[in-house]
Amino acid sequence: MAWRLYSLDLSRLEGTAGEVLSGAPEGAEEGYPASFQPLEEPWEARRADPVPWPEPLYFVDGRERGEAVLSDGRRLALLGCVAAGAVVYQQGNMRLLETRVRRVGVGLEEALRLGELVYEPLPLEGPPSPGDVLTALQEGLRKARTLLEEKLAGALAGGLLVVDGPVRLRRQGPVLGYIKTHWARYLPEDREALLSTLKPGERTPMFRVRRKGQELASWYLRLPLPPEGVRPPESGLLRVETPLQGDFGALADLSLSLFPALASHPVKDPRAPQNLLPVGGLERELARRMGSREVVVRILARHQDSLSADLGGG
Fold first, then answer.
1. pLDDT value at residue 73
2. Which end of the chain is more exposed for a tag (fewer CB within 10 A), N or C?
């Protein structure tokens, strides 16, 4: 059978599909092991003297967006767009360094051209079970974004790399990952109490995190908060991590000079203060380069009659 457009409104998919295609939180399945291991004692708030930022200082982030679902009556495929970009701080200036954008067809075996849109084929790695099809499609899109981020980061020489999210890529040189939302607990209850008492510019002691063959040092820090408003206890809280190698303790202290200085303000960013200024600007630029989803939907709808011919049938 021929491929046809199944849905242009991903929010209307039944069951958990809407959640899956809008992007489930990364790292939500992770948490602290029974053998929690602190890397510093005593377990109390820590401050550090200000230190200059290393240069070059890179910030890398990516975006993914599902744009349509195809069906041939037996299979589903996801058309999506992924983007990655880098910002660099050097000689007192922050500037956009590079952006990369790809359109992919997760589950397709041939490229698809619809007007000016070209979706590269990204076959699934083995047939998923019927109940996991949408999850597999979203995971394929996420892997495409991660690969784009890794390729971009791999081309950055020297300096310190900061990534929005967990540290999953590997590079020569130091890297810091920061996590804005806290779906998982990394601390046992008796250690977790320290989080609510952290003041802006303070961090917890470091603790060990193991993830898929990686050994990481992690810690929480508090960003500055505007004086007005009522806030939940996790406001301004970041979890930061770095590979457990080299002088990771110095990176923990450096983070207290770096992240608070880059915190956003709620007047300009509803995700403030955790959405750091250079990353927020990079996200907006990536969204612009990915193009308006409304325009993409109109293009797809306009070319849906030629879809089966472009894919050579089913």
1. 85
2. N
Q: List the domain range (segments joined by +) for residue 302.
A: 4-9+41-310
Chain-centroid distance of CA 68 in Å reads 21
The residues, ordered by sequence, that sit 6+ positions from 312 with a Cβ below 8 Å of its Cβ are 110
80 Cβ neighbours under 8 A, 6+ residues apart = 64, 65, 66, 67, 103, 104, 105, 106, 141, 144
Give the per-residue pLDDT at 212: 86
Alpha helices in the chain (DSSP H): 17-22, 133-154, 189-192, 248-258, 277-290, 293-302, 307-310
For residue 8, give every residue at least 6 positions away whose Cβ sits within 8 Å of its Cβ, in sequence order, or none.
Answer: 67, 68, 297, 300, 301
Burial of residue 307, with CB atoms counted within 10 A of its CB: 0-12 exposed, 13-18 middle, 19 or more buried: middle
Domain count, the chain: 1
User: How confident is the chain (314 residues) per 10-residue block, as mean pLDDT?
Assistant: 78 42 47 84 98 97 95 91 98 96 96 93 83 88 96 94 92 93 91 95 97 94 76 83 97 98 82 88 97 93 73 50
Query: Could you give the CA distance from residue 100 to residue 108 in angstroms, rounded to a whole number?
Result: 21
* CA 296 to chain centroid: 23
Residue 103: its H or E element: strand 93-106
Residue 76 belongs to a domain with what CATH number? 3.30.2170
- pLDDT of 1 reads 60
The reported pTM is: 0.88
HEC per residue, 187-233: CCHHHHHHHHHCCCCCECCCEEEEECCEEEEEEEEECCCCCCCCCCC
How many whole angstroms separate alpha carbon 226 and alpha carbon 290? 33
Using DSSP's 3-state secondary structure scheme, residue 14 falls into: coil
